[in-house]
Amino acid sequence: MSVKAIKPDSKIVLVIGGSGFVGRHLVEKLCSLGYTVRVFDLRTTFEHEKVTFYNGDLCNKQDLLKCMDNVDTVFHCATPSPLSNNKKVFLRVNVDGTKNVLDACFEKGVKNLILTSSASVVYSGSNIEHGDETLPYAKRPLDCYTQTKIQQEKLVLSANSESLKTIALRPHGIFGPRDPHMLPTTARLAAAGKTKFIIGKGINKVDFTYIDNVVYAHVLAAQQLQQKPEIAGNAYNITNNEPILFWEFMSRLLKGLGYAAPKYHLPYYFIYFLAFLVQIFVFIVSPFKTIRPTLTTMTVALAGTHHYYSCEKAASEFNYSPVVKLEDAIERTLQSVPELHNKHAKKVK
Ligand SMILES: NC(=O)c1ccc[n+]([C@@H]2O[C@H](COP(=O)([O-])OP(=O)(O)OC[C@H]3O[C@@H](n4cnc5c(N)ncnc54)[C@H](O)[C@@H]3O)[C@@H](O)[C@H]2O)c1
Ligand SMILES: CC(C)CCC[C@@H](C)[C@H]1CC[C@H]2C3=C(CC[C@]12C)[C@@]1(C)CC[C@H](O)[C@@](C)(C(=O)O)[C@@H]1CC3
């Protein structure tokens, strides 16, 4: 089963957050398949002759209603930056904003809503090995991003109905060209000399998901929601199906960027406690100054524990399987970094 091209301009789709990393890759794929694509976002970050851009705030339902006439399917992939540290904004966008998206979908007769959720909605900092969708939502999420992603997913899945089919896709550790989070943060930390250390023993395995596989899953799910109503109302893990040692993956990126791989080990619980103290300090000064630390209990836990997931449910219920293997994905990602283009071009198959 693969994603299908459609009769050109026979279906109108809306990508909320379409100017972002996942959103833009999704928009480009949908256009290539013949969809009429609209983008709703706070900002416009690119031009495309086949795309109609609507600038607005999904927290303002009137803004949303303006772009939803005759829309068949909505892809909701808007979020404040996961590494920002603003609880109010997360609650406002991921929870109140998602309520607006659902209300607008019902008002405008949208048939399908695909939410880009996150595998971390079941992660509270303990090891997860081959975790499937039966795992409960994290009772104590490590940050307000994750807390609001849980609330968001619950809202979307409980809205599933005869008139609006909803589905939540849970990618994990998305990377690829134009990623604004993982690679740039890694490069910034490396440039500051902060990537000499391995947090913990370095034996924790994690999932990373190449952007083309995430986009493929979104289109596949959207194309099957109507034919397979049984998949509606469900959440599905979406990964590369190739769990890798976190520090091996990071070392590949760092060496690809021209930096040395981390080599000195730091005790995991010591760094976790340090991160906890940093967060207390950030909270104390927050009335006076907003600080966005990279060292948080969430990022330390992600760097020091197992967190990889099973995609068997997506494979069996809507035939998902990754279209780009991890090795190729890493090379393509490094090749996409302008200053590294020539160095990696020859390696890409
Ligand atoms: N990047 C990852 O590793 C990852 C992993 C799993 C899930 N996700 C999920 O994928 C989705 C996309 O993430 P991304 O990495 O592309 O993020 P991103 O920051 O690149 O894009 C998010 C987009 O949402 C827009 N947005 C934010 N607030 C808005 C508002 N109030 N109104 C309208 N638009 C608004 C932003 O302008 C931005 O263009 C998110 O739902 C995220 O939770 C991301
Ligand atoms: C050498 C350094 C330790 C490198 C630091 C890399 C770090 C910036 C990334 C490593 C794992 C990434 C990650 C997300 C953001 C960037 C990292 C922390 C993530 C929190 C982004 C939001 C997603 O929804 C996420 C929670 C998910 O489940 O995919 C991400 C988890 C991994």
Automatic annotation (TrEMBL):
Places the protein is found: Endoplasmic reticulum membrane; Lipid droplet
GO biological process: cholesterol biosynthetic process
Pfam family, one: 3Beta_HSD
One term of GO molecular function: oxidoreductase activity, acting on the CH-OH group of donors, NAD or NADP as acceptor
Reactions catalysed: 4alpha-carboxy-4beta-methyl-5alpha-cholest-8-en-3beta-ol + NAD(+) = 4alpha-methyl-5alpha-cholest-8-en-3-one + CO2 + NADH; 4alpha-carboxy-5alpha-cholest-8-ene-3beta-ol + NAD(+) = 5alpha-cholest-8-en-3-one + CO2 + NADH; a 3beta-hydroxysteroid-4alpha-carboxylate + NAD(+) = a 3-oxosteroid + CO2 + NADH; 4alpha-carboxyzymosterol + NADP(+) = zymosterone + CO2 + NADPH
UniProt record similarity statement: Belongs to the 3-beta-HSD family.
Domain 3-beta hydroxysteroid dehydrogenase/isomerase: 14-266
Membrane topology: Single-pass membrane protein
SUPFAM superfamilies per record: NAD(P)-binding Rossmann-fold domains
Gene for this chain: 20210137
Name this protein carries in UniProt: Sterol-4-alpha-carboxylate 3-dehydrogenase, decarboxylating
Repeat among keywords: no
TM segment ranges: 269-288
InterPro entries: 3Beta_OHSteriod_DH/Estase (IPR002225), Lipid_A_modif_metabolic_enz (IPR050177), NAD(P)-bd_dom_sf (IPR036291)
Pathway(s) annotated for this protein in UniProt: Steroid biosynthesis; zymosterol biosynthesis; zymosterol from lanosterol: step 4/6
Keyword Membrane: yes
Key words, A-Z: Acetylation, Cholesterol biosynthesis, Cholesterol metabolism, Endoplasmic reticulum, Lipid biosynthesis, Lipid droplet, Lipid metabolism, Membrane, NAD, Oxidoreductase, Steroid biosynthesis, Steroid metabolism, Sterol biosynthesis, Sterol metabolism, Transmembrane, Transmembrane helix
Documented EC number(s): 1.1.1.170
Native organism: Helobdella robusta (Californian leech)
Lineage: Eukaryota, Metazoa, Spiralia, Lophotrochozoa, Annelida
Subunit structure, as described in the record: Homodimer.
Predominant place of localization: endoplasmic reticulum
GO CC annotation: endoplasmic reticulum membrane; lipid droplet
Enzyme class of the recorded protein, top EC level: oxidoreductase
